[in-house]
Amino acid sequence: MVTLTSIKADDWSRKTSKRLGRGNGSGKGTFCGKGCKGQNARKGAKYSPSFEWGQSPLFIRMPKMRGFTALNQVRYTAVNVSTLAKIAEETTDITKLVLIAKGIIKKESDVIKILAKGEIAKAVTVEADKASAEAMAKITKAGGKIEMK
């Protein structure tokens, strides 16, 4: 039967600390395993993780990033005509709220661009921020229209 008093921790589960500076007979006396003098013998002495002992450091060996990222860039969420064709089976007015409900865009502030991949046969009214010329042609050919904001 196992009781709380009979449970014993494994020998390897608790690491005993080094008893440093307790005489040379202990094996860790005088210099306490740190060798003689120098940076590594001092207290709190550590080389930085990036130090590579005379080898060219990794951040020097790597190529540097070029160019810059524009702060005012607009990231469009692409919506294909084929996706609109699937939604057109249920509704003819396609707005951002409909696209959010279908899980195509995440939030109402997303900027949408309609692209021409796929075909559409049903007339739909699409509300978008931008559209490619080919996508506009496909939607108008099917009898629909795109309302740009």
UniProtKB/TrEMBL annotation:
<dbReference type="GO" id="GO:0003735">
    <property type="term" value="F:structural constituent of ribosome"/>
</dbReference>
<comment type="function">
    <text>Binds to the 23S rRNA.</text>
</comment>
<keyword id="KW-0694">RNA-binding</keyword>
<dbReference type="InterPro" id="IPR001196">
    <property type="entry name" value="Ribosomal_uL15_CS"/>
</dbReference>
<dbReference type="InterPro" id="IPR021131">
    <property type="entry name" value="Ribosomal_uL15/eL18"/>
</dbReference>
<protein>
    <recommendedName>
        <fullName>Large ribosomal subunit protein uL15</fullName>
    </recommendedName>
</protein>
<keyword id="KW-0699">rRNA-binding</keyword>
<dbReference type="InterPro" id="IPR005749">
    <property type="entry name" value="Ribosomal_uL15_bac-type"/>
</dbReference>
<comment type="similarity">
    <text>Belongs to the universal ribosomal protein uL15 family.</text>
</comment>
<dbReference type="GO" id="GO:0022625">
    <property type="term" value="C:cytosolic large ribosomal subunit"/>
</dbReference>
<keyword id="KW-0687">Ribonucleoprotein</keyword>
<dbReference type="InterPro" id="IPR030878">
    <property type="entry name" value="Ribosomal_uL15"/>
</dbReference>
<dbReference type="Pfam" id="PF00828">
    <property type="entry name" value="Ribosomal_L27A"/>
</dbReference>
<dbReference type="GO" id="GO:0019843">
    <property type="term" value="F:rRNA binding"/>
</dbReference>
<feature type="domain" description="Large ribosomal subunit protein uL15/eL18">
    <location>
        <begin position="79"/>
        <end position="147"/>
    </location>
</feature>
<comment type="subunit">
    <text>Part of the 50S ribosomal subunit.</text>
</comment>
<dbReference type="GO" id="GO:0006412">
    <property type="term" value="P:translation"/>
</dbReference>
<dbReference type="InterPro" id="IPR036227">
    <property type="entry name" value="Ribosomal_uL15/eL18_sf"/>
</dbReference>
<keyword id="KW-0689">Ribosomal protein</keyword>
